[in-house]
User: Fold these one by one.
Assistant:
Number 1:
Amino acid sequence: MASTACFVIVSKNDIPIYEAEVGSAPKREDQAYQHQFILHAALDVVQDLAWATNTMFLKSVDRFDDLVVSVYVTAGHTRFMLLHDSRSEDGIKSFFQEVHELYIKIFLNPLYLPGSRITSSHFDTKVRALARKYL
Amino acid sequence: MEDYPEELRTPPLSLVSIVGCPELHPAISAALSSRQPPMNLLALPDFSKASILARTAKARDPLAPPQAPAGILKKDWLLKHRTRVPAAVAAMFRADQVSGDPAQWLQACSDLENLKSVIQGRNTKLVVILVQSQAGDELSEDVTVALRKRAEIDSKHLVVLVERDEMEWTKSLNKLTTVFAELCTTYYKDEGRRVKARIEKRNFSSVELSIRYCFKVAVYAEFRRDWPEALKFYEEGIRVLREMIGTSTRLPPTQRLVEVKAVAEQFHFKISTILLHGGKVVGAITWFRKHIRSYERVVGSPEVAFLHWEWFSRQFLVFGELIETTSTTVPDTLSPRFGTADNALTEWEFQPAYYYQLAANYLREKRYALEFSSSSVSLTKGVNGLPESVMPSVYVGQYVRLFEQGDTVAVLPLSDTEYTSYALSEAERFQDSYEIIALFRKAYESFRSLGATRMASACSGGMAIEYYAAGDFSNAKQLFDGVAGLYRQEGWATLLWENLGYLRECARKLKSLKDFISYSLEMAALPLFSGSGQGNSENKRKNGPAGSPTISSRELIQQEVINILEGKHASENTDDEFDLHLMEESTHLDIDQISPLRIVFLASVAFHDQSVKPDSPMLVSVSLQSHLPCPVMIDKLEVQFNQSDCNFVIVSAQEDCSASNSHVHDGAVQTPLTLFTDKWMRLTHEVKPEWKAGMFGGEGNNK
């Protein structure tokens, strides 16, 4: 189980549409800024790397202190970004794949505007459950 | 890296010495320098100067027990072996000095004996050089044999230089340099083997000597250009060094850490240099990461944590400079599959800018720790006072105190309290903020040239925070504005919140009321994720002046703005930051299509009918929406058209309008004007035909 992790979904317009502090560490609001700061800066690498490879899962694209950024890029160029400490790649990949399925269900909702914020509490609950399961 | 001594920054070159015949030294020195690898020459004009090569006598009592070493690495050992202790010495004679009259021969023999006695105790190799004017001048076999026996050298180590024959001179000079190169290799190999034998036999009494021996073997290997061997022993030395943190008791705890880190810094610098100059970029980065991981938690006590962060920052700075100066080419296959499977390297780790921005971040940690140390130690400063005459010791990473008593000068060890006071006073002399800004700027320019706008923006934000900390609010505001633009464009609300918090305080300090109100309203209206709960007060210094983006924070900000606008703040405190004169005038904010304040207020006007007919009523709807967290009470709402005759006013019903009723135009309407968060308020206003006809039908009125 991770001591610290932050998960952000970034739309193809580089706008974050979902954000969650996941992990077993006690929730610390002041860490959220630092975590998002790292993820935002990591978008530069993802931008180049996403076109250089044909895999959706980009592991360890960036690091800061002990924190590593892993990214999952969907076909529509939405990016799932996870900030974590060192851990199993398989768990992270499975987490991304299952969140992707949840995201597709949100996307299929005709009332959901693509690129807008995901405000579904059901989605939020599911994502946090997956984080506890895989991360 | 420029702070490191020259002998550490450059690979060691073989050192040879020549004694006698000074007029020929420049030519020989040029020949040695042009070899690959080059050799350094220690030129001594005559034999009376040869005593400089002598070994300083160590009075060792054989009966005394082996004394514990006072340090790990002697500071001058490397410099000594590069400038004063040659691998080979050449005694240089002219032919007539050895084949002339017996007095000259005896003088030459005496000089040679003196030279041999000087290098006694060292493994320095001896060469004899004879200088002939012409190739035809044949030296007798007896003379050369006698000279060789006197010097106790091999026949090939007696070199004859022919001075006035160009071809012969070049050939003999090449032979001389070749002999020198062979002897140097032999010397450094023998010395390395001798010290290595002590390591293998565990023939040392302390762990300090073990590390010192590893360093010596590695340096001797570097002299021979045996990079794998040098690397192996540097790595072994740094491994043993890491272990002695928890075991050594020679120094007090704080000074022990300082010494260990200083030595580790030297070892790692050597490792990085060898790997990078050998083209092994991935290995160098992997080693750097290991180095950082070994020491990042060895902070020491809180009073001296600033020393750790200063050291830590320098590791990143020096490594970034090494990567930059070795002009390494990033491997073509840009895959995050470098390094081990568990610790893949990222693309940024090949860029010097990555290390510069981290160096800046850790130097900021030093500033935080220094502020903490200064506040805690200042309470006891009067008691301790500052130790006088503190200076670096002859050992790497150690400090001592000079003590003068009459003609005697003694060197005394420092206590940890004394050392802490000294280190604190030294650190307080420097202005870290501007060093941090320089590092961030360096990284910023590099990232921008790479097209990494977000990393460049992160560095720009780092610069701005340091300007803010140093009290330069104008520069800080300019940089924060640029960073806020990117966060607005990309919708990263959490980062924008932090940025606006700084901008608000800059506007306050710069007494810019309009900017302060704009930034405050934007903060209050920022859409934040629902996960934001009640923030705690831990690690307050990590956050900017905005604090956590909670609902209560935004409500406080909105209330502050309203208080300023209503003038309550000014009446309560006449020393308010804002100019009182500004309070007299109304504050005017423009909110247009591109204004960042569009998220604060939205206004929409709609006509109910497609056309306007004379003598018919017209309906106009005005809709307002506020995203501020608290309800907004509006006193008066004016709707203005291009034709000012069409303007109308809506007055709040909550206001006491009895006094102003007599002045209100017939068209004025009273209605509640309270905006609730995120809810549209629609106001429908009817323009009555009588009033409207009266305005436009001037002639009719006259009738």
Number 2:
Amino acid sequence: MRKYLGNKTAILLFILPALLLYTVVVFYPVVQVFYRSFFDWDGLSEASFIYFDNYIRLFHDHIFYTSLYNSAVFAVIIAIVQITIGTMLAFAVAEVAMRGRKFVRITVFIPVVLSITVVCQLWLAMYNGEYGLINKLFEMLGLHYRQDWLSNKNTAIFALAAVNAWQYMGYHFALLLAGVKSIPESYMEAARIDGASKMKAHLSITMPLLGETYKFCLILAFTGGLNAFANMYIMTSGGPGTTTYTLTYMMFRSAFRVGEFGYGSASAAFLVIECLVVTLIINKLIARDPIVY
Amino acid sequence: MKKWALALIAATMVMSLAACGSNNKDSSAANSGEKATEGTSDNGKGSSAEPVKLRIYAQYSDEDTKGPYDYAVAELKKEMPNVELDLDIQAQDDGQKLKTYAATGNLPDIFQVGLDLINTFKKSNNILQLDSYVEQLGFKDKVLPSAMNTLVTDDGHTYAFQYAGNEVAMLFYNKEIFEKNNVKVPTTYDEMMAAVKTFNANGITPMALFAKEKWPTVALFDMFASRSDAAGITKLDKGEAKASDPAFKQAAEEIVKLVKAGMLPKGATNLNYDQAAALFHEGKAAMFLNGQWEIAASTEALGEKLGFMYVPAPDAATYENAKLTFSGGGGPGGYAVNPSSKNVELAAKVAAFMAEKYAEFKFTQKGTPMVALKVDKPIINKFPPVMEQLAADIPSMKTTSFSWGLSNPKFKAAIEDASQSLMTGTYSADDFISDISSAIPSK
């Protein structure tokens, strides 16, 4: 190993393709986004430098606040649902005594590999106000709780978050399950000898030891939620009106529907900073060294 | 274990390098293909007899768009056999693909545009001013007087050869449903409200609207607004009126009232065309809003039962005054030419020819009189009865400019969002006014 690490040329050679790709595909566009956010630019004509005007306009735009609120609601819902249910399922599936473990593991993971378009179409049919499954279920239960799930400005963003939470729950479940399985059995045995219940053992041993995994899951869920776009684009087109806009959708609207690339870049730049801050906060809150068993 | 991991990483790197390599090969092949095409164009320059290949960006996705294109190409083969068209199918993406082509200097020789793209491309010099060709080809003489507004933009120049005339949004209705339920075809807002209530009481959806697409919602608002102000939302688009002006405020208020009374089906803002049209075609909805191109499909589904109504107004007198004001119309648009094309002159000629043939096909074979150009060929497919009725109104028809003719993209996006919100019933007229006011240019 030392021989490999001592060879700087080999290291450079191995890193270079990935680094180049990352620079061209990620780093350069991000720098461009920040740079372009100071311009009045339609994507084609000559851009004119307008200092912070795009940002000033952004902070006075009501769509920006709707988008910010929706992104936050979306991120919080998917983070809570995916991680809570993911944890419960991971604990259950890790239990050797549980029957049908394989079945649960596969069924929970299936939505993750489905195309998001397919999932959205499926849920569109279920949410349909006239003949959708969800309203029919309420009807069967004798509840007069028929809703226009996606056309009601109060329920639309929650309905969209539920779809995303459902689809990617399996991903978090898989990560957490891998985490649970990597914890040596001896820890649990020791807890059992000391008389701890299953619940207590999970709360005091498994969960704290999963800190690193939780950190990763939280970052994924939050940044994924703040970046949400596909669900809105396919299911509601940001509607009704602007009620399901997120910052990404707002960027899309500004750049591609209105042709204001500078303004779109400003909202994208804000989104980059927002995701960075959230990641830093999560890192700070769950700061610990990786555990080596 | 670590050795294995290292070996695996190394293998992955080699694979990705190999992948990059093959990509490069692909792209260079693509480039050389492009070069070959350019080479052909070069050869064609200067001599009309030599074969010339022109790249054209046109709609070609369904029967409605494939028909006229194929017809025009077949006619072109007869007229200019040396010209070969290389079709690049237009994406339904708000002009993104075309803008990307423009940004990368890869614009096709001929492309279809609407007014918003004309305005964008004008600024960046990506669209040819066609005034001299309009003159040279006598194109102006071919344009119908009623469609003259589609030939020149606000700056007095022509940038595209238009073929579609002033297309209008219409309120269709099912005569049988109205008769069976003893409902009078509404002429005033009060009668409209009475109709909505009766239909709802009898379990019939009053109006099907595919409000997932935002333009039909703008059309409905424009219909109502144009009862009191014939220019409709065009005035807002140009900054010549305020959203709080009575015509617009009242239109928004009336729509909110009707939506609250149950005018639209549940989840209307999530209905696409197929779902909304099915409601109307299957006799489950009494009214349906769509452009005049709907006539063919609805006639096929409903036959004699299909009718169209003039838009209800605040009172009978206003109704009479405004009934021939249709929401819709058109703006400049059609086939435009790339100023950097290697065969500019030929491209302009072909663009004008294509526009002419499109109009011809629509008029003679698609049963639509709403074209921009005069057609002197006999009609092959007769107009359906509703179209005959509409055709009789065309000479005295006035049109607003409406969603597809709006020139200000910021206002267009804002009114589309706000009009769609109006269809939920939980959005007030004041919210509507405040949301679109910020997007109206100040004059």
